[in-house]
């Protein structure tokens, strides 16, 4: 391979890295900072709750009384946990119901989500760790972007989702989060 094609490959790789990883972080740095600043009181309230109870609440509306004094607001934030972070009641009824919301479920999406939410309300005591997802940032180039916080690591990252030919592909959070946020304080957790 001659020097020109090799140089072109190297420059393309460097440019690709810049476009995919560095440019979005710089472009959305202000929005990331704003999302982190606005969520700080909520994160502090969640940490107080965990200190007092040994786990995080299943829903934000369980943060009452002394936890509200920090001035946090849940608007524009998705609060969830991965299923392996759920703390499930140890009674037989909940153990049996757990099987009905896992694996291959022969129901419509709406029915399965409603069952999952009922199970979560009745059988999940709390979370070991949680995730927060901010409102979407400015939509650009067919890609949604947002701030994503994981309590396990205590760090914010840039989440994203692309709508390529009708499918959704992304990382850290859920696509079309504005639909999940509409009128909801909490959503069924990630699987």
Task: Output the keywords.
single chain; 191 residues; alpha+beta; 5-stranded antiparallel beta sheet; 5 helices; 41% helix; 19% strand; globular
Give your account of this protein's structure:
- The chain has 191 residues and is of the alpha+beta class.
- It has one domain (3-181).
- The protein contains five helices and seven strands, in the order ααββααβββββα.
- The chain has helices spanning 3-27, 29-53, 92-100, 109-123, 177-181; strands spanning 78-80, 86-88, 124-127, 131-133, 143-150, 155-164, 167-171.
- A five-stranded antiparallel sheet has the order 1-4-5-6-7. Strands 2-3 form a two-stranded antiparallel sheet.
- A hairpin with a 4-residue loop joins strand 5 and strand 6 (155-164).
- The chain is globular and about 70 Å long.
- Residues 182-191 have low confidence and may be disordered.
